[in-house]
Structure formats: C-alpha cells, structure tokens
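ok here's 2-polyprenyl-6-methoxyphenol hydroxylase-like FAD-dependent oxidoreductase, seq below lol
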Amino acid sequence: MRMDVDVLIVGAGPAGLALGIDLARRGVDALVVERGETLAPGSRGKGLQPRTMEVYEDLGVLDHILAAGGPYPVGMVWADGEQVGEHAMFDPMEDGEEGCRFTVPWMVPQWRNQEILLARLTELGGTVAFGREVLRLEQDTEGVTAHFRSGGPVRARYAVAADGGRSAVRRALGIEMRGETLDPDAALVADVRIPGLDRTWWHLFPPSGPDSGFLALCPLAGTDHFQLVARLPEGTDPDLSPDGVRKLVAARTHLAPEAVTEVLWSSDFRPRAALADRFREGRVFLAGDAAHVHSPAGGQGLNTSVQDAYNLGWKLGAVLSGRAPEALLDTYEEERRPVAEHVLGISTAIHRDEARRGASTRQLGLDYRRSSLSEETRENPGPPAAGDRFPDLTVDGVRLFDRLRGPDWTLLTLADGVFLVRPDGYVGWAGATQDGLGAYRARVGLDGSSPSRRPGTDAFRP
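and the structure came out like this:
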C-alpha cells in the first residue's frame, strides 16, 4: 500500500514537535497532526532542565530559547502582607556534576517553547496539520492508517502518540496507564497580568488558615505575565473565570482583586503520577505525557517528554533509512520506560516534600547503562562509562559537544579511552582501544554505516 508519510506524530506539544524536528533533520518524511486549531496556550511546563537545554542546542533552537526566557527567581515568602523570608527553589551544583554548560533550569513559558519548536520544524520543511483529531488507528505488517474526525486518512510506516496524558491513541491501543492521584485537592493554574508586583521574586503565599490554601505567583521570564498556581480546598469546583481568579488572589494575598488586570489563560488539574504499561504497540509508540504523567512539582514532565523524542528520533531515522535493523526500535521502551519510572519517583518525592530540586532533577545523571545498546569493555571504567551521557568537555580549546552535534554516531579517541557516542549523546561502546568495536557495530546493526569522524575528532589527547 502507498504510504503518505514515513512517520505520523499525533500531538503538537513539546514531545511531538521535538520529534518532528529530529526526524526532519534526518530527511525523514514526517507529519505532525494536532486536534486543536492552534498550539496549546498557557505557561504550563515552564522549566527546562540542563539536559534538555543540551538537547535543544543539538536541535538548533537553543539561541531562541535563551532569548525567550531567563533564570528562575528566588522565592519570597509572604505572611499577612509582609515579606517574611526567602526560599531557594533549587539546590546548587554538587561535586561531580561538572561537564555541563547549564547549571540551573531555564524558564520559558510552554506556549513560547512550542512556538520556537514549531518555527524550527517549519524551517526544516516539516509540517503540522491543525484541526486533525484522530478517531482510530488500524495497523498491519507494513504500516499504520489513522482516521480523523475531519479530512481523509493518513497512511504511515510508524506512528507516535504524543497527544498528552489523556491520549486518545493510547486508549485506542488498549494500553493501561497505572498510577495514583497524589493529591485529592484540585489545583488551579493561570497566566495573569499584575502590574506593579515586584518581578524580582517568585511570590509564595502559604495557607493562612484551615480554610485557606497555598498560592504562588511566578514572574514568567520573557513576558510581563505571572503564572499563578493555587491549591484548592477539597471538594471545591475551580472557578476558572477571570472574576474567579481575581477573587482567589484577593482571598490569599495582600493584593486587591483589581490588581489582576488581565487573566490570559486558566486551567485546573489534579496532581497525578502514572506510567503506561508499555511504550509500544506494533508500529505505534508512546512518547511524553501519553506514556508518563508527573506532578508539576519537580519540573520533570516536559523535560522527560522531550528526551523521549530525542531517544526515539535517531532510532526511527536509522531504521527507515535501512542502516539499522527494526530490532533497534525495541530499545526505545527498553531505555525510556525505566527512566520515566525513575523520574516519576523523583517528581512524586518532591511533591510530598520528601526531596529537593537538585542534581536528580537536572537530569544530567540519567543513563542507559543497563541497555542492550551499551557495551563497556574497559576493566576499570571511569566516567563516562558506556550508557552515560557524554559530558560537555573542552579539550585543547575545542568543545567536544561541537563535534558531537548532528544526527550521526561519533567516534572519540581520548587519553582515557575510545568512545563511540550515539546520536543522542550517550556512550554506546567504550574501550581502552578499538579492539571489539567492530563486533559491537555488527551487533547493533551499524555495519552498513560509518561513525562520523569530523576533522580532528579521533585525535584529541587531553
């Protein structure tokens, strides 16, 4: 049967757009479909962790992300209209965390993040079709056919569900999402304008009584907006109207209702932690919130979603080009599901005030050491080991990340070993010499391709 595209991506959130970019730069014919008529509004996930910033640099959007955002402010705690203390939101870098250009999360409202990703996708020749709601999928041995509420069907070799925590595709596939509601109370989130409120601080208003609740106002970098987050009393129906938001601010802060001059967007949610039973069904893959749902407390959900896309993109590209066997796609779930499960534990612990935002939330230490793609042949491996993220090092004045950037494998020969680095920046194979490298390449299906050796890459001697 004729294929309309190689890959159909359902959902134009950060995961879907990042995957579209990664595939487009590899020459893969992919189509992103989105049921909404536009990109989703609202600040939602606003924090980009250091590892995601590295991914964005490779995808070609970092400069725009840096220009659009800024660092997080320090928290200022209020009580009875008085400032009573500061609160550091993130722990500083620890020993052993060196090797990264970025040390703290970078704040960019999600709506702006998505705009930047969409612009990059368009620049690379990619497409997003809006107003295309998937009703059902049909699979066979050759591909996937998607049927929509409006418009004709689309036939693809593979499909990726990146359509959020309530994923219609996941439900259609019959994949269970198991987890727990972390808080019985609903929460309200909104983007508001409050002229005159000091943007130096992330304003924190703890509960002032048994009938009150927590409220925070975070200045959104790159805008004149604040993100409002408030916990609502149990059994309360959120009032998402502008007047409802104004009344909530007035009830829990020293601000008058009219201080909120505009409510640009509002929504409600119940914090939940859940994980899909599997990340693949035949030729359909789950990515992002369709595969795992986090409490927003740890700033992990969006970042884990983008890194799902970064893991899956190079594997789809290699298989579709014929350079790797289809078995390579099995390693997507093998690698990403354990990571998602681990990160969910971190998010939940932070939500329950059992952990701090620090080294574990920066996501630099996440690894694939137990993956079948990771092979360590040294007797006494020092960091990085096979399966680790390769650090952002400068050798003889040359930044190695500049050598690693791009969609290919890269062979690095350094004084402490030989490293075959995957397209997503993780070490696939490591050895004291190149002995055994050929066998690894044959095992993982790289015999038909050559790792990139950009000028000088294999000659560095720190």
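fwiw The chain has a mean pLDDT of 91. kinda neat tbh
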